[in-house]
Amino acid sequence: MRKELAKKKGERRSFHATFVRFGSKRGYQGYKEETILLKNIVDLATNNVIADHAWFSFTKTFQRLKLIEGAQIAFDARIKEYHKGYVNKRYGIDNRKKDYRLSHPTNVSITTVPMETTTNRTPKRNSRDD
Known about the structure:
globular; CATH 2.40.50; single chain; five-stranded antiparallel β-sheet
């Protein structure tokens, strides 16, 4: 699916997706960063599914929304290339692969809220986020 993203590398486009859940990752110097998972990401211009899922940092843009599991979200994002995989220079191992992601989401809004609200959780914020 992300092969479609390769054709549009560098462009800013509009997308539609479904919010699934909150998560976390280890950021710079081991600090925990909250993330969100979106699934079934659709390019609004072509109405094609371009990715089955994507993780985003839980930035202030997303924090302003009251995210509920199953909510439909519309947003604009830039398509960027990145490298994923394992590298060990000492042993000459380079298993990197080129892939594409959505970055710098803007104009984020909730378009549809599910009828049943099963999850309404906002992660705890660190004092250094203020």
